[in-house]
Amino acid sequence: MDISELSARLSSGRLFHAYIVTGADADTRLRAGKLLAQAAVCQAERGVPCGVCRDCVKAKRDIHPDIEIVRREKENAGHTVDTMRALRARAAVLPNEAKRGAHIIDDADFMNIQAQNAMLKVLEEPPEHAVFVLLADNPQRLLETVRSRCETVSLNPEQTVLDPKLTDIARELADAFDRRDAFGVVKAAQPVEKLGKTELFDLMTALRRETLGRAGRLSASDAERLMEAADSGDKLINANIKGGYVAGELIARLIQP
Ligand SMILES: [Zn+2]
Predict the structure, then answer these.
(1) Which of the two ends of the chain, N or C, has the fewest CB atoms closer than 10 A to its terminal CB?
(2) What is the pTM of this model?
(3) CA of 31 to the centre of ligand 1 (A)
(4) What integer pLDDT is reported at residue 157 of this predicted model?
């Protein structure tokens, strides 16, 4: 999945106590980890992270007191058992502001066996108010017992295969937009009305891929408009807005001069 899919899943699913984020590159894993942390501290009852509450705002600015990132002390050193014991002690304490504290462990696959066993003790009986996010390039280096207690978030490259019906709609939308054909945009958006939530999310992914696939053939501002239309669509879908309105939003964004 990519970050927008993770965001969509978070807002419609439940939050787990522990995650392993794997795949992609270190920066993307960290972004995904921060998104999970934000969801953990968000005040909203559902649809986390809401993006607008006090805790979300602090999380986005990287100044939330209840979100910590545990990094290796040195590039070539692993996490030690002492680091993990200290983490365990901090996680046991109630958070300062949010209902949950989030603990992101960078390069979690660089825990040695003792450190992993210390981590395992935490995962076996996680404090109610703590969420752990293990970032790992190579999760195979983690103990099976650790992995089995975490929800795994696998980021791209493995791209999800999308329904061709949806990639067709995305292509027709982009084509009509490219031609400045307002009627064509309206026509291409028509089947969007009947799509369910998952299909709508996939359509936005298809629209992004379609845009990226046209790199060089679209002007930068046109590519941006298509991307913004997809982002805006995601927001509506996240808020459980029905297909008809999502279609309307796409039309409004793509037929402006
Ligand atoms: Zn929030």
Answers:
(1) C
(2) 0.63
(3) 16
(4) 66
